[in-house]
Amino acid sequence: QLQLVESGGGLVRPGESLRLSCTFSGNTLDYHALGWFRQAPGKEREGILCMSSSGSLTNWEESVKGRFTISKDNAKRTVYLQMNDLKPEDAGVYYCAGAYDSNCPRVRTRDVFISWGPGTQVTVSS
Question: 106-109, long-range: CB within 8 Å, 24+ apart, which pairs?
């Protein structure tokens, strides 16, 4: 069973960058899409970006276009979420999640994601 752990969260100032890591074990991502989700205080967890098993990216969140991207290092068993030009509204707990399918859903949904990490906190404040 796929197991995931996020790391790399912290406190940054607006305009700064942060790279989150999602380390996976128990299985490979050869047959699983990997999504990044964010939960702001008082709000529901929502999807931001997704990478299919073949490396194709799906962007669900308009506000992060051009600022956030996903990359994968299979040798390190890690998927990264690179976040640039961070804004206060980007703050929240970030989760990575593995889907039961190799492709990302075209619409933002949590339904197909079956393995979740515990999350890592990102705070953006001056």
Answer: 106/58, 107/60, 108/46, 108/47, 108/60, 108/61, 109/47
What average pLDDT score do residues 89-105 get?
96
Yes or no: say if 63 and 49 are a contact pair by the CB < 8 Å rule.
no
CB distance 30 to 94 below 8 Å: no
> Are 119 and 6 in contact, with CB atoms under 8 Å apart?
yes
Q: Based on C-alpha coordinates, what's the Rg of the chain?
A: 13
| CB-based contact 9:122 (threshold 8 Å) | yes
Residue 13's CB: how many other CB atoms inside 10 A? 11
Which residues does 40 contact at the CB level (< 8 Å), separation at least 6? 89, 91, 92
**26 closest CA partner among 55, 52, 54, 3:** 3
> 27 pLDDT exceeds 90?
no
Please give the pLDDT value at position 28: 85
Coil, helix or strand at residue 90:
helix
